[in-house]
Amino acid sequence: MSKLSGKIALVTGGNRGIGKGIARGLAGEGARLAITARGDNELRQASAELARQGAEVLAIPADMTDERQVEHVFAETMARFGRLDILVNNAGAFDGGPIDELATAAWDHVIAVNLRAPFLCTRAAMRIMKKQGGGRIINIGSISAQRVRPGSAPYSASKHGLWGLTQVTALEGRDHNITCGCLHPGNILVERRQETGKVEDQEPMMTIDEIAQVAVLMATLPPHVNMLESIVLPAGQLYVGRG
């Protein structure tokens, strides 16, 4: 029997990149899926692709920074599957530049997608998981939560905040059999980084499936075991002393 047979997983930002890779990995272990993202067409294409690979998928277009839409996503997931075992807070955004030139709108957007949305989703998931007696939440952070670069103020701040949210969630979930861990990826060759010509996109890279393997490992641990934090990056990528 597959390790996640009978389990229900919700993946935000599941329409492409890391999110779609994690969804594919979870489905490969037998999980049934709900995936959500803002892009309706791309989301449905991802759903169809996962379904062709044998997954049972519910696709729910939504902006996860909007409280009402988040509530709708979780209500639709429960209406379809009746439970939620795994939440993967993956949806993310990047913007930046020198702090003295940074637009407030850029700051607000990144903080909303990278921190407000995981909070809203975590709150909704905790309410469900407490009632059913347990569950697992996986937050997709970044090595920028540990080592920052210039010009990344909103992104780095949001990922530091997500690591803080992870720890509080793990602490509050402990008495309810709810685990929470944070996966910090290094460079990943997602769609937007291919053939850009940018210097930073020529650095050592991992594949989407390689980082997804770690997320699946976190999801398939025994219920009493939690991988609180994992830093995964290409062996050749600068990390200690980066900047």
Give a brief description.
By secondary structure, the protein is of the alpha/beta class.
Descriptive notes:
The structure is a single chain. The chain has 243 residues and is α/β, with parallel strands linked by helices. The protein has one domain: NAD(P)-binding Rossmann-like Domain (Rossmann fold, 3-Layer(aba) Sandwich), CATH 3.40.50. It is 42% helix and 16% strand. The protein contains 6 helices and 7 strands, in the order βαβαβαβαβαβαβ. It has a 7-stranded parallel sheet with strand order 3-2-1-4-5-6-7, with helices on both faces. Strand 5, helix 5 and strand 6 form a beta-alpha-beta unit. Helix 1 packs across helix 6 and helix 4 runs parallel beside helix 5. The longest helix has 29 residues. The chain is globular and about 50 Å long. The mean pLDDT is 94.
Structural class: alpha/beta
Rough outline: globular
Number of domains in the coordinates? Answer: 1
Low-confidence stretches: none
Sketch the major β-sheet. 7 strands, parallel
Main features:
single chain, 243 residues, alpha/beta, Rossmann fold, seven-stranded parallel beta sheet, 6 helices, 7 strands, globular
Per-chain topology:
Blueprint: E1 8-12, H1 17-28, E2 32-37, H2 40-52, E3 57-61, H3 67-81, E4 86-89, H4 104-132, E5 135-140, H5 153-173, E6 178-185, H6 208-220, E7 229-232
Parallel strand pairs: 1-2, 1-4, 2-3, 4-5, 5-6, 6-7
Helix pairs in contact: 1-6, 3-4, 4-5
